[in-house]
Amino acid sequence: MNYQKLFKHIVTIFFATLILSSCKNAGDARKIPPNVKDRVQQNIEEGRGFRLMGNMSTKKKSGEFDFASSNELWRASLDTLDFMPLALANYSGGIIVTDWYSDGSSQNESVKISIRFLSNEVRTDAISVKVFYKKCSIQNTCEVLDRSDELSEDLSRKILTKAATYEKTSKSKKKKKYINKQLLKD
After folding, report:
1. Closest CA to 155 of 102, 114, 118
2. What's the pLDDT band for 104 if we cut at 50, 70, 90?
3. Interval 163-175 mean pLDDT
4. How far is residue 48's CA from residue 18's CA, in Å, rounded to a whole number?
5. Helices 72-80 and 150-185: crossing angle, nearest 10°?
6. In whole angstroms, what is the distance from residue 89 CA to residue 113 CA?
7. Which long-range contacts (CB under 8 A, 24 or more apart) does 124-130 make?
8. pLDDT tens digits, 62-101
9. Cα–Cα distance for residue pair 174/72, rounded to 1 Å
10. Are 78 and 69 in contact (CB under 8 A)?
11. Residue ranges of the domains in the chain?
């Protein structure tokens, strides 16, 4: 049996069925609302459509993400590490990893920092900071040590402080916009 010919026939039948099934009558124009929003709402109610952005007036649900620029923890982390080259910054994965960095005072030592986001809320348990030191000998043998102790706590504190400041500023801006909108309505 020639499977290649059989496959071609199946694909041809599939596409022909697909094309023919899409050629149906558009419906009675008297039953279709002329307003676009009304048509969309009717289609959704009848189960023939969906909304990509959802209802903008509803509260955020799980699975919906903000842009990185609106996440205070993310912005504060990038601002804190802005002197170091980044190896990885993945907002959807919730991780920032710097490249090995040396300030030039010691050629044989360098540091790498990894920040993992556990929550979008500004809280003490929202991020996990790891600090790795690499010390190389003259023979180019290197030893990497996890030293996530005092420096990681300092970095976490600095990031959380900046994030809290960003959050406070963001809330006051939103409040001003709300007040201005209310004044315009009245």
Report:
1. 114
2. confident
3. 80
4. 17
5. 130
6. 12
7. 124/156, 124/160, 126/73, 126/160, 127/73, 127/77, 127/156, 127/159, 127/160, 129/153, 129/155, 129/156, 129/159
8. 554 455 566 889 999 999 999 899 999 988 888 999 999 9
9. 14
10. no
11. 68-177
